[in-house]
Write a structure and sequence with these properties.
By secondary structure, this protein is α+β, with helices and mostly antiparallel strands. It is built from four helices and nine strands. Strands 1, 2, 3, 4, 7, 8 and 9 form a seven-stranded antiparallel beta sheet that branches. Strands 5-6 form a two-stranded antiparallel ribbon.
């Protein structure tokens, strides 16, 4: 297991298992969906994650082009588009869990700002991936992106 200090967290990562996990996926969530919002995310993907986040992902075995989940949230009056999504790694972490349980059935997330356009947090989970259940950590993010594809497709 590799120990990586990132901001207020210590990540304990099985890099090889994480790399094997991402090697099984041929594409990210946005490609699997293919709607206009996801096409816009794909067009922005290389800029969606700050450089230090891309470096972190590479160091723990995550292919940033293969998010497990990405969702369009909304756009603001400045025509900035908000997305959230998730990555996972095999392992655990020490530090604040971003998931805050509200009651038995609901929760919210408290994320740390990395820059003006990107927030993230970590939460422990058990994810049933392919053949086995493994101890995994979800990396949940929110990112703000411009509309890069055909302006006619922009949501009003």
């Amino acid at each position: 297991m590799k120990h990586i200090k990132f901001k207020d967290w210590t990540l304990i990562v099985d890099v090889e298992a994480t790399q094997q996990l991402y090697a099984k996926w041929t594409e990210g969530s946005a490609e699997r969906c293919g709607c206009d919002n996801c096409k816009n995310f794909i067009a922005n993907r290389s800029n969606a994650y700050p450089n230090d986040i891309q470096a972190l992902f590479a160091s723990i075995g995550i292919d940033y082009r293969k998010e497990l989940d990405v969702n369009y949230i909304s756009k603001n009056s400045c025509h900035q588009h908000f997305y959230d999504g998730s990555f996972y790694f095999v392992g655990s972490f020490i530090g604040k869990d971003c998931r805050i349980q509200l009651d038995k059935e609901s929760y919210t997330r408290e994320l740390q700002a990395i820059n003006d356009n990107f927030k993230m947090g970590f939460c422990s989970t058990k994810l049933d991936l392919f053949d086995s259940v493994q101890n995994t950590v979800e990396i949940f993010f929110i990112t703000v992106l411009p509309w890069k594809i055909d302006k006619c497709l922009d949501i009003n």
